[in-house]
Amino acid sequence: MSRRLVDTLGRVVTNLRISVTDRCNFRCSYCMPEEGMEWLKRNQLLTYEEITRLARIFASLSIYKIRLTGGEPLMRKELWQLVAMLKKIDGIRDIALTTNGYFLAEQAQRLADSGLDRINISLDSLDPLLFADLTRRDYFRRTWEGIEAAEKAGIHPIKLNVVLVRGVNDGEILNFAELARKRPYVIRFIEFMPIGKDDGWVLDKVVSTREILQTINSYRPLVPLPHVNGKAPADRYMFADGKGEIGFISSVSQPFCGDCDRVRVTSDGKFRTCLFSLTETDLRAMLRGGTSDEEIAEALVNAVSKKEEGHLINRPEFIRPERTMSQIGG
Fold first, then answer.
1. Domain range holding 320?
2. Which helix (H) or strand (E) holds 143?
3. What's the total number of domains in the chain?
C-alpha cells in the first residue's frame, strides 16, 4: 500500500491517537462525572495484538506518530509491552503517551526502556488542595512523583497539560510559568473545551491564550519559538533564562482545525476523524469479522476523505458528542 490519508481540504493525516482504556482512577470535573460511569468490559477493548495490527495498517497510509491515551492508559496491564510492539512497526517514528501520572513512578523506566519517546502529564494545579478538588482525588504527591520518575527515566520532552477554568485555577498562571522557567518541562495551557458530561462549560469559563500571554508577559517577557514541524497545535514560547517551554492549545479561541493532521481510535475500536465527530467507523467489528488489511485500509481512506472541516465550537451548529473525553480518548 502506498496511499495516504488525505481529506477533501488536502490535509494529510500523520498523527494517530489510540485510546487503550476508558477507565480512569481520577474524576476530573471537566472530563467526567464523579459517579455513574459505566466502563467497557474487557472483551470490548481492543487487544494489544489488534492495536498493533491497526497501527501497521495506519503506518502504511502515512501515519508515523502514535499517541496512547485513555481514560488513564497506565491502568491497562503492562502497557510497556504495547509500546515495544508498536516501536517495531516500520514507519512509526514517534510514540507518545498522555497520562495523569499516578502510575508513572512504578512504570516510567519500563516505558522508556520499551521505546516511549514523549509524555504528556495532566497537572491542572500546583496546589495540592485545589488539585484534589479538581480531580476529586488527593493524588498530587503521587502525580508529582510520577513526573520526576519520567524525568529520571530520560523521557523527553515532558509536557504538563494545564486546563484552565476561569474562577477555578486561573490564579496559578504565573506559578506554572515559573515552573517552566526553573525546570525543563513544557507547560501547555489548554483552553477549556465542552467535552465532559456535566462539565458546566460556558464560553465565559474559557481563559483564552491571549489573556494568559498578557498575564505572563506583564510579569516577564516571553520569547516566541518556531513550530517543530509546522503542524503542531501549540504555539511555543520560553523565557530568555528559562529551562523549559510554555505552549498554548487554543482550541476555542484560535482553532487549528485548518492544519489538523490527527485522527483517533477509541478503546472499543471506533475510528473518529475528529474529537467532536458525530460519526464513527467500527474497526473492531472489521478486525474480528475477518476483514482484510486492504479492506480496512480502504475504509480508513474513505472515512478520512469525509473528515470534518472543523469542530464548530461557539457556532450554532455545534453538537456535543455523546461520549465523554475519557470514552473517546484524551
1. 15-156+254-328
2. helix 140-152
3. 1
Give the CB-side neighbour count of residue 305, counting CA atoms within 13 A: 8
Is residue 326 within 8 A of residue 19, CB to CB? The reply is no
CATH number at residue 129: 3.20.20.70
Sheet holding 281-282, edge to edge: 222-225, 235-239, 245-249, 186-191, 158-164, 118-122, 94-99, 65-69, 15-19, 262-265, 270-272, 281-282
* Rounded-to-integer distance, Cα 124 and Cα 132, Å: 10
pTM greater than the 0.85 cutoff: yes
- Tens-digit pLDDT profile for residues 92-133: 999 999 999 999 999 999 999 999 999 999 999 999 999 999
C-alpha cell at 1: 500500500
Q: How far is CA 32 from CA 36, 98, 130, 148, in A?
A: 9, 17, 17, 27
List Cβ neighbours of 209 (8 Å cut-off, separation of 6 or more).
Answer: 189, 191, 235, 248, 250, 253, 254
Query: 183: how many CB neighbours lie within 10 A of its CB?
Result: 16
In a domain, 7, yes or no: no
Inside any domain, residue 38:
yes
| Residue 164 falls inside a structural domain | no
